[in-house]
Amino acid sequence: MFREGKSVSKYPLRLVYAKSTFGENPEFKMGVSVSKKYFKKAVDRNYFKRVLRETYRLNKQVLRENLIEPYSFMLLYQTKDRLSYEEINQKTIELFEKFHLQIKPKEEQ
């Protein structure tokens, strides 16, 4: 996915995505990652992974809108800054909207 996929960023988040085919009927699959480079302690990495999963869960309808084909996603937290939940939630929404703007012209053709 990282080689063939594309990405979109909204500081400090990055969304890597690729079209995929699934055996069943899911629209997309999502993974999250927080770098050990920025957070040495597992408890800190796990906290931000939980926050990313929760913001995804609450805002997946924004990501799901207008998707025609199935996608695989990887959501990455790429900074050592400790943003609050509200800031990460807002950035997640902006990132998902930016994703739609990036794929929209390609799907209309």
From TrEMBL:
Keywords: Endonuclease, Hydrolase, Nuclease, RNA-binding, tRNA processing. One of its GO terms (cellular component) is ribonuclease P complex. It holds the Pfam family Ribonuclease_P. GO terms for molecular function: 3'-tRNA processing endoribonuclease activity; ribonuclease P activity; tRNA binding. InterPro entries: Ribosomal_Su5_D2-typ_SF, Ribsml_uS5_D2-typ_fold_subgr, RNase_P, RNase_P_CS. RNaseP catalyzes the removal of the 5'-leader sequence from pre-tRNA to produce the mature 5'-terminus. It can also cleave other RNA substrates such as 4.5S RNA. The protein component plays an auxiliary but essential role in vivo by binding to the 5'-leader sequence and broadening the substrate specificity of the ribozyme. This is Ribonuclease P protein component.
